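QUALITY CONTROL LOG
STEP: pairwise intake check
CHECKER ROLE: data steward
CRITERIA: each record must contain a sequence immediately followed by its structure tokens, with no blank fields

ENTRY 1 OF 2
RESULT FIELD BELOW
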Amino acid sequence: MSKMSELSQVLSELKDCGQTLMNIADSLTELFSSTSADHETPAPPTEEPKPAYSFVEVRKKFAEMSRAGHTDALKDLLKKHGADKLSSIDPSQYAALLADAEAIQ
């Protein structure tokens, strides 16, 4: 084997060793960064958000209940929430309104 080809082979092996060392360093970095993340204080649990209802969903539920014979109770429920008609209800009150409507059935 000539000196040049021998030198080329040694350089190739040296590059492979360097790449292997880089891979090991990356693996160790990843390992230690994930380990330190595991020891961080977990965030306090947050309340589950209340489901947001649209006017269409509330109107659909009221229509079903009205067909089932609960029209008078639904009118009373609207009055309880300070409205004459469903479109007058504040959208932030839809969840409470539906919860009260479920109690009627």
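ENTRY 2 OF 2
RESULT FIELD BELOW
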Amino acid sequence: MNWISRVRKVIPFIARKETTTDNLWHKCGHCGQMIFLKEWQENLSVCPKCDHHGRIGPKARFEQIFDEGSWKILPTPIVKEDPLKFRDGKKYTDRIKAARASTGEQDALINAHGKIEKASIVIGVQDFAFMGGSMGMGVGAAFVQGVEEAISRKCPYIIFTAAGGARMQEGILSLMQMPKATVAIQKLHAAGLPYIVVLTDPTTGGVTASYAMLGDIQISEPNALIGFAGQRVIENTIREKLPEGFQRAEYLLDHGMIDMVVHRSELRATLGKVIGYLAPGKAAA
């Protein structure tokens, strides 16, 4: 028995190696600062040093936005998996299984209904950790599900977008989700209900080209990457250097493409006010 082991037995409060894991710390993806995981979570996954807004999943988002104990996740719609029998480096079905195992979700868009400051609401959240939040048939079906749930409850629908675009493994079927989502939004408007978009980092590709930019109100988290094609592709196409901060939330706000940039700590209160403005009867109910 070595000296360290003897000391650990004598002084039990010294943590054993297996309990002092990397899980106690989070490294900021922007400034590299090491932050206690508990502090990171209590700060809504925002870096206390550089204010970088980290990517979060559906359940964390629901807990931050909904009134405590008021929300319930909707069952994930069932769609045909691997309709094209796609395979690249490995089978598409294997990629789906791996994404489900790592996130605990069935697909990249999860809906829940609940209340924000006592106002009924349906929220959809895209999870970038699930295959880059890519839009396939499952995401399209979940988006329509969220809209239909909002219509049935006569309340607004809020979508938190985070995606690298359409899911290439589903080919043209993934692109067909763009008009499908647009028709669903038209039905929501026909019912006289607001559609609110919260853009998070990153929101790109076919998602940006469809439901991410069709909100009655367009809100973004700070410094979120928002665009269709990548910056390098655009520069190579137009053969010009793009301006500093191009495709970031603040740049889009300055150029009139979104309505506001809201810090995560203020997002819940802001959404409550927006719902009160757009659907005062629903908020009062």
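INTAKE CHECK: passed for both entries
DESCRIPTIVE NOTE, ENTRY 2: The CA atoms of residues 37 and 140 lie 34 Å apart.
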